Amino acid sequence: QVQLQESGQGMVKPTRTLSLTCTVSECSPTTNLYYWIWIRQPPGKGLEWIGAIHSGSTYYSPSLKSRTSISRDTSKNQFTLQLSSVTPEDTAVYYCAGGYSSPYEYAYWGQGTQVTVSS
Q1: 116 and 11 in contact (C-beta within 8 Å)?
Q2: Between the CA of residue 99 and those of 35, 46, 109, what are the distances in Å?
């Protein structure tokens, strides 16, 4: 069972860059083929897909693409999210996830981490 754990800033000031890391419990030829995904849930709203990385390719939500960067460090079993120029509307619980066959299918989830954008 693959386990994921998010870590990073709990609070970010407006206009700054949000940075989160997801640590994956294992690295194998199988997990190297997975899609590694970031999702968020703003307060009182549904899940919002942010983007994913897979075999060196990245996929981003069109609405967030200009501010989003997702990368992966296989030596540390980690992948990261950077979201620039944040506003209070970026306040959400951020989840990392992993999937076998698509950037939109989630087989494994992290527990989520609250990020608040406030001055």
Answers
A1: yes
A2: 5, 20, 9
Residue 114 pairs in a beta bridge with 93
pLDDT tens per residue, range 36-82: 999 999 999 999 999 999 998 999 999 999 999 999 998 899 999 99
Q: Which two tokens stand for residue 34?
A: 């997975």
Separation of alpha carbons 37 and 58, rounded Å: 10
Beta-bridge partner residues of 23: 5, 78
Say how many Å lie between the first and final Cα of the chain, rounded: 39
Secondary structure of the chain as H, E, C letters: CCCEEEEECCEECCCCCEEEEEEECCCCCCHHHCEEEEEEECCCCCCEEEEEEECCEEEECCCCHHHEEEEEEHHHCEEEEEECCCCHHHCEEEEEEEECCCCCCCCEECCCEEEEECC
Q: What does the alpha-carbon distance between residue 18 and residue 25 come to, in Å, rounded to a whole number?
A: 23
pLDDT tens for residues 4-38?
Answer: 999 999 999 999 999 999 999 988 888 888 999 99
